[in-house]
TrEMBL record:
This is Transposase DDE domain-containing protein. Pfam families: DDE_Tnp_1_3. The lineage of its organism: Bacteria, Pseudomonadati, Pseudomonadota, Gammaproteobacteria, Vibrionales. InterPro entries: Tnp_DDE_dom (IPR025668). Residues 24-97 form the Transposase DDE domain.
């Protein structure tokens, strides 16, 4: 059973490799409840399924550096979701909108 998104608007996205040549992509809320799950083949880019998985979210979505993408950031912003990631060493810092 998937849980509703966090009442605080704080969710996290991550990827885990499965033994059967697939990746498990998961979005959880701030209490560890599963909001969205998607299994993809290994050759799918990390950030590609995230926009669709985040259709019913709002607030802040935290992910690692693999989710850095201007198009993804814009798609999520249109849905009311702020993407927050770590920084890659070769990328200049950006000002974050509040």
């Amino acid at each position: 059973m998937l849980l509703p998104h966090s009442p605080l608007g704080i969710v996290f996205v991550d990827l885990s490799k499965l033994q059967v040549c697939h990746n498990l992509r998961i979005i959880i809320n701030d209490q560890g409840g599963i909001i969205s799950v998607k299994v993809t083949t290994v050759n799918v880019i990390d950030r590609r399924p995230v926009s669709k998985m985040a259709d019913d979210l709002w607030g802040c979505l935290y992910g690692d550096e693999g989710y850095i993408s201007d198009p993804l950031e814009w798609e999520l912003a249109d849905k009311g979701v702020t993407l927050i990631t770590g920084m890659k060493k070769n990328i200049k810092p950006k000002v974050m909108k509040l």
